[in-house]
Each structure stands twice: as C-alpha cells, then as structure tokens.
Amino acid sequence: MAKIDDLRKIATRLRIHSMRQTTVAGSGHPTTCLSAADLAACLFFSEMRWNTKDPDDPGSDEFVLSKGHAAPLLWAAYAEAGVISLESLLDLRKITSDLEGHPTPRMPWVKAATGSLGQGLSVGVGMALAQRLDRSPARTFVLMGDGECAEGQVWEAAAAAACWTLRNLVAVVDVNGLGQSDRTMHQHDLPALARKFRAFGWEALIVDGHKIDKILAALKLVGKKGQPTVILARTLKGKGVSFIEDKNGWHGKPLKADELARALEETGCLPDVDSKRFVHKPKPFIKKKVAAALDFPRTSYTEKTATRLAYGNALLSLGKVNAKVVAIDGDVKNSTYADKFFEALPGRSFQSYIAEQNMIGVGMGLAAKGYLPFMATFAAFLTRAHDQIRMAAYSFSNIKICGSHVGVSIGEDGPSQMGLEDLAMFRPIPGCVVLYPSDAVSSEACVAAAAAHEGMCYIRASRPATPVLYPGNETFPIGGSKVLRKGEGDAVTVIAAGITVHEALKAFEALKKEGLGLRVIDAYSVAPLDKAAILREVAGTGGRAVVVEDHYAAGGLGEAVAQALAGQAALRHLCIRELPRSGKPDELMERFGISASHIARAARELCGR
Ligand SMILES: Cc1ncc(C[n+]2csc(CCOP(=O)(O)OP(=O)(O)O)c2C)c(N)n1
Fold first, then answer.
1. 114, 117, 146: which to mutate for ligand 1, most atoms within 8 A of CB?
2. Catalytic residue among 47, 151, 356, 537, which?
3. DSSP annotation string for 545-588
4. pLDDT, tens digit, for every residue of 319-361?
5. Which of 79, 248, 556, 601 has the fewest Cβ atoms within 10 angstroms?
C-alpha cells in the first residue's frame, strides 16, 4: 500500500505544480491538468519504463500528450522525475522557456507538437510501429481527452492501430465529461466510448481515474490480448479543488492568487515524497545499426516518363540502400507508384488506407523515432491533412511528402482530383522545402535531395508523361534552378516549373521562328526559390518576365517570383484563375491559360508585339 500512498502524494504534487504554474503565467488550463493528475502519476511513476537521462533511449517507453493543453501537468511530471528543475516550472509560457503553452519538441522529451486536438493517437501509432520495427520491448502511451475523441482522426488512428495489431500502444482517455465550452458528446457515459473503441478492434477497460489502485490494475492488463488497449478513466475536471471541480466555465482559466490560496488550503502544501525514486528505468536495449545511405543509383531514362513514376522508382532505389526509409500511402500507391517500394520492401511499407490525416501523424511518429518516412497521395487530398502538416512543422518532423496528380494537367478525372492549392499550403511553412520536378531525371534527384535534407520536404509530382530534359547525372540542389534556354538578345524570361516547363519550351520554339528570344528557367525548387538566378536572368531580358504554373493564383510559384522580383520587372502571371473541369490535359491547359500559346502571347504583349 506504500506505493499507492506515494503515487497519491505525487499526484497531489502534480496538481499543485500545475495550478501554481498557470497562476504565475496568468494563463493556461489547470482544470485539465487536475483531472489527469492521478493518471499521469501512475504512468510516469509506476507503469512506464523510461530513461530520465536520455530522451532518445530506444528502450524507453514513449509518451504523447494528445490533450496538449495539459502541458503544465507534463512539465510537472518531468520536474518531479528530475528531468527539469522544479524552479523552471514557474517559467511556463515565457519566451525564454521551452516549457511552452502546448508541448513542442523544443523540449527534447516531447516528440511531437500537440495542442491541435485529435492528432496524438496517430503520432502514437507511428511511434508504436517504429518500436515494432526496432524490435524494441518499449511501448507507447497516449494521454487523450474525451472531448477530442469527437475528432475523426482519432478513429482513423484507432482503426489503423487495430489493423496493425499494435499491442504495444496504450491510449488513456481522461473522461472528465467536459470540453472547452460545454459537456462532451458522451459526458460520463464511459460504456459508450468503450463500445466505439471495441468496435474499432481495441481492448477497452473502464476505470475510476482517481483511484490509484484501479488505474494500476488496468495498466497491468494492457497488451495482454494482442490488441491495442484503451483505458477509459472516469475523472472530474478540476479534481481536488471543490470550487472548480466538475464545473463548466473553468476551462482554460488559471486561478487568481486568492483562488490559488483557497485551492491550496484544500490540497494541502506539497506532500513529502521523492518522486524520482519511483521512475522505472528501461531494460537496456540497443538498436541494430542499419544501412542509411542517402544517395542511390539512378534509373536511366530516355522515353517520356511521368514525374510520379520516377518518384516511385527513386523511392524504391533509396529504400534499397537506406533501411530507415519507410513508405506510407493513402490507397493510391498504384498511382503514386509507391507500389514499387511496397512490393519490394513490404516490411517497411504501410498502407494507410484512405485516411490522410492519420497518414501524416503516423509519419510524424515514425520520424520522431528516427525513421525517414516518405508519404504519398494525390496533392488534392493532402489538403485534408493541412492541420497535421502544420503540426508536423512545429514538431520539426523530418518527413517527406509527395503530392501527385497536380493541376489541370491531370485531365479527364476533373477538378475534384486536381491539386491546385498545394503550393499555397506548403510554401508558407517556414523552412519547408518545396520541389517541383519537370522530368524523370529531376524527379529522382528531388527524392535524393529530400532524403538528404533534415526537415519537412514536399515533392509535387505530375500525372502525364513528360519528355526527359536532363542528362542522368544532373544534380538538383535545394534552392537551385536551371536555365534551359538562353541566348543573346533574349527579350523575355519565362519562369516555369513541372508541366509548364514543357509548355515554355514549346513557346520558345514558336517565338524563335518570329525572331523573339525567350529565356526559360526551370524553377524546380519553389521553396527556397533561386531568387538570385531569377533576378539575374530577368534583368538580362530587360526586366520582362512571364511566370506560368499549373496552380491557382494565390500562394504558388507566381507569388514567389513576384516577391523575389519585388516590382523590379514587368511580370505576367499565368495560372489557373477559374474553377476547372474535365477535359484532355492539353485542352485544359489551353482553356485555362497556361499552355505554350498563352506563354507566347504574354511574351509578345510584354514586347509590344
Ligand atoms: C482541433 C482543435 N479544436 C479546438 C481546440 C480548442 N480546445 C482546446 S481544449 C478544448 C476542449 C478539450 O476537451 P477534452 O479533449 O475533453 O480535454 P479536457 O476536458 O481534458 O481539457 C478545445 C475545444 C483545439 N485545441 N483543437
């Protein structure tokens, strides 16, 4: 019984730290922390096996705080365990502190940023998969709120975890029955939540989330049935302080100084217990070293080839020399050609089915554990995962995403399948690399560049087969561009990328016959953009430029080039300006204004012809 008493004392300490931190910060979510304090005490100081000296110990259990607004509770647990000092807790939310309002990996024990609710379970699925790939005995614990269980992504993740039989994954849901502005969907109807999880293939256990012995007993049962386990814990928001307990209207409100004093009268002062003694170390586990080359033998191309096909070829070649590479695909692998990797390397291939939000979260989890995930789906469908991509940026995730079937050039399938907003989605993310190859050689090179780059990369791939433009040994560094046509007396520079590079080359031929010289730039690195080359070449054509892209007007290559030129040039922007429709690729590019004839017309107009 001594242990239960100690854990109770630790939980009280976590409660007091959480309240103090938020009162000093003047903001935060104390009631959210109070409901989960007993659960956190049992996880961090009894059930989990983890190394407080090394956040990357491969033998350690992982923890994801999906209900990220309970960050003060997480920081309190790390302080009690001796990972950070108790004094540092009072720096919560300060610009000088890594103890942010919601967890981010600025604090090294945090493996993925949370706070956009409903995402943590997917990250946990990725981590549990990584632990399985590593053959590690470690497990992954995800602490969630019951309110966030209304998010569809939670159920995408739940389905995936069961499909992949992740017995090493444990979700703990803090069912306090309250959300931010209201009671939650199921309130304290825990059997309703249990039915849902069971229907998704999980072992579901219901406990009183404030009874330490009951929580510990449930934790002893996890993974026993070869399924992922969820512990549904009945709790009270604000537990331990009568005037906020189970009261709507207290979410996200710190206690004022006098309220804190009253609260502390109820909890008593910090109970005397050395929490560090209760942290269980992991069993020593050494991860097997694997081949991890970043370059790979390139395919030789002579025939017209789609950049998406070259992506698939490159991914397979990379996967053969780098055992950290994993492929995830949203049930379009025969279109993105990730199927080549899937067939040859099934152990590192994950069918994510039609669940794009979960796909990105799983990739984040795998990346957090040192894998190099390449994820692919149609660019159009990545928009469903924009929030997850945003959170991957705050997680500093080393993930690579390929969006295929971009623009009107996909043709007959029509607008629902056309990625026309994807550049606008990835370009604003600071540090995110955006590559847009125009031929098979550059597509393979972009895969190599993305693999070698530490950080999020997006590769934009087209559907139609395009002619080969480059010799097999050409390199495509991030931030570079290629000047494909250049002559003395060129009148206009055309800046294109992907499919429109080929239209620009056709326009070049047409205008050559008219004695009008076009300079053609392949701006394959959309972000970062090769500003120096663009400025130089545009200056060399008298400050006249046309930018042409298979993307909507906002947020794409045109805006990037306009920013680079900063009004220093006469610039025409050709892009998709209306809602497109089905048709043949060439017809669509003509109808919507990005074909060779439109480029030629714009160039003539700029020259007053
Ligand atoms: C996707 C998303 N939508 C809305 C919010 C705003 N929000 C923050 S906390 C919260 C309520 C969370 O309720 P629950 O998951 O039950 O957590 P708890 O009650 O434990 O605080 C909401 C709506 C958010 N952070 N993320």
1. 117
2. 356
3. EEEEEEEESTTSHHHHHHHHHTT-SEEEEEEE-S----S-HHHH
4. 999 999 999 999 999 999 999 999 999 999 999 999 999 999 9
5. 248
